[in-house]
Amino acid sequence: MIDVKTITKRYNGTVVVDGVSLSLPAGGVISLIGPNGAGKSTLLSIVSRLLPMTSGTVEIDGLDVTTTPGEVLARRLSILRQDNQIMSRLTVEDLVAFGRYPHSKGRLTDDDRGHIRNALRYLDLEPLAGRFLDELSGGQRQRAFIAMVLCQDTEYILLDEPLNNLDVKHAVAMMKLFRRTADEFGKTIVLVLHDINFASCYSDRIVAMRDGRVVHQGPPEVIITPDVIRDVYGVEAQVMENGGQRIALYYQ
Amino acid sequence: MPADRRILSPMVVLGGLSALTLLSIALFMTLGARGKWDFILAFRGTKIAAMVLVGYAIAVSTVLFQTITNNRILTPSVMGFDHLYRLIQTGLVFQFGSGLVATLDPRLRFGVEVASMVVFSGLLYWWLFNGAGRGDNRRSLHLLLLVGIVFGVLFRSVTNFLQRIIDPNAFLTVQDRLFANFNRVDVELLTVSALVVLAVSLAGWRWRRTFDVLALGRDAAVNLGVEHRRAVMTVLVMVSILVSVSTALVGPVTFFGLLVANLAYLVIRSHRHALILPAAVLIAVLTLVAGQLVLERVFGYNAALSIVIEFVGGLAFLFILVRGSAR
Predict the structure, then answer these.
(1) Which of A3, A46, A215, B268 is the Cys-Cys partner for A59 at CB 3.0 to 4.6 Å?
(2) DSSP sequence for A43-87
(3) Chain B contact for A127, CB < 8 A?
């Protein structure tokens, strides 16, 4: 369980996250949605200890993220931010292998190699395994980073806009993969998403943020409604039912 | 692995570099030798030892510094580390007088200088890279570059100023220490330096896989469980010690580290420090020994090696800077 208690983040007087408390049970896919500047990415970074909070606490299964040793947390929680620039000359396989670092500290065992192979296969990266990252397209690179995080094989997987740079086919495949990882392996996947329809179709739970606060949360049926979308984004939307899934139309 | 055929494997590159380095050392020891061998070998051996040590210290410190700062333009010397060491050397004479400093055991003196260097550079660059209370806003590379160059000039100017106002005897002591080069190396200092470098290397070798992770950037390193703050601090201490060694032996060389580190990245197509570090060291030693050899045998000591290296290194620096900003 991820337990966020009254987190506040302030930059030079500007409040980005404003006293957020949130309790996310283990297992399932959870999407964070909200307009630009709502504090979603900041909250995700604080939960994953990449950013210090101004006040409040975060506990992952009872482990306080600010005091628990990094290597302990790294076996329980993984995070992928947006914009990953890497200076080293890495092949896709090298990058994915780094996902095993928390477990084997760089000395790969057979078990590690198995995880690396699986991650490459799940993300359709086998043909690219030997290619250098700077020779790949944005979408291929994004998939390589996600493979690294999945290879880390943690209970909690936090991803900031994982669908960035992905075409429709790979975006759908990625969401299906997250769904499968949650269902088959019992992982907890927390995503920051901009596409509310992807959030609607694949999440167990949606958390909507605006102005640094959590304004709504619940299953897709509760969140994907014209009223909530108007409140969160300030746009008028129509919501259609399609085979049990709720699709919001907000294009006009 | 379907590796590109034009690219040699890292082990082949390392083997080739080692062979070339050994060859240049052998030539340096034997070429144009007239007179007693025991004198020649001892005389030239000292020079070789100094060059190996300096090349090693500069190469390793530069690669590690670039690993923790995640860039390929900043180096300890571009950021003014070696001028800081000069300032500390001069400052000690200024503060305690030439009499005390000159009579002090050179090993103790070196120890004091290195210790102050570690403390000052640690504080200064920790502050710089962690944004002086600006939270997580990363500083732009170009801002850091500018700050580093300004620091370098500041340290050098203060050093010059101190040298002007100390008494002439003290000035002689300082000058004697500051104008070191490969032809006049203090053997005692050499031994101490070698031991220090060895200690740093043994510690560093155990961290080699952590260096690989640090090179991925802060976020990825934290995600993979590296205690980033502590790791960066440890590397900064190592870099400060290595820079002290090279500066104490031959003085500041601004662009040499940049040159050898980038050549190493170029020939070693891998992210592993276990390969990059040896390559950088070999390239550094090879450049110094072969350069000095050509200088002594071909030009008859008529040019300074540092000028040639700084010229080529400076060009490389501009090239990397322009290419980097165009991308």
Answers:
(1) A3
(2) HHHHHTTSS--SEEEEEETTEETTTS-HHHHHTTEEEE-S-----
(3) no
The pLDDT of residue B41: 82
**For chain A, which ranges sit under pLDDT 70?**
none
- A55: domain CATH number? 3.40.50.300
Evaluate whether residue B30 is within a structural domain.
Answer: no
Q: What is the DSSP string of B161-189?
A: HHHHHS-HHHHHHHHHHHS-BTTB--HHH
Q: Does A75 touch chain B (CB under 8 A)?
A: yes
Q: Domain for residue B76, yes or no? A: yes
Instruction: Quote the domain boundaries for residue A99.
Output: 87-153
pLDDT reported for residue B181: 60
Q: What is the ipTM of this complex?
A: 0.89
Please tell me whether residues A17 and A45 are part of one structural domain: yes
Whether residues A71 and A91 fall in one domain: no
Q: Do B220 and A105 touch (CB under 8 A)?
A: no
Which of B63, B222, B223, B268 to substitute to test the interface with A, most A CBs within 10 Å?
A: B223
Counting the structural domains of chain A, the total is 2
Secondary structure letter of residue B8 according to DSSP:
P
Give the integer Cα–Cα distance in Å for A180 and B28.
65
Q: Quick one: DSSP state of residue B140?
A: P
The answer to the question of residue B1 being in a domain is no
- Total-model pTM: 0.88
